[in-house]
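Problem 12. The chain below contains 171 residues. Write out its predicted structure in token notation.
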Amino acid sequence: MARTSNGSPWPRGRGALGERPLPVERAPTPSVAAVAAAGATAARLRRWLLVALGFLCVGLAAIGAVVPGLPTTVFLLAAAWCFTRSCPWLEERVLGCAVFRPFRPYLAPGTRMPRRAQIAALVLMWAAIATSVVTVGNAGAGAAIWLVRVAIVVAGAVGTYFIVRAGRAAA
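Solution.
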């Protein structure tokens, strides 16, 4: 609210009828406790959402442990990330489960991908890429098909880079 030169919120002169004008009402300022409660509520909601997402990832990892082609480690990494930020004891409990115990060494930072696994991944990945490029070529003709083929090969090159990088020793 603007104040006059003498510090009063009231103007020097009177209104048309001689009464003072009403001061402008301000919106109430939220208290520190109200702001803290809102922050705590948001943090609690975020925590529960991360726990729910973590359990979803654990479920997908469990399915991936028995279904060929569905990744397990990726979903375990995502679940570990969610549980670390929401409920660390859940992370330890899930990763200590007998179903996921064989994957635990691959979750440690700096762990190298074994050479045999690296070669198997690259051979299978490039076989799937070649099959995809040939199959897409049979679907039709045109410039869009060549763009799709290039995108498949580029994605394969990026995947190859990450697989080869995962095989190197951590510095």
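Discussion. The two ends are 61 Å apart (CA to CA). Students who got a different answer should revisit the alignment rule from Section 12.3.
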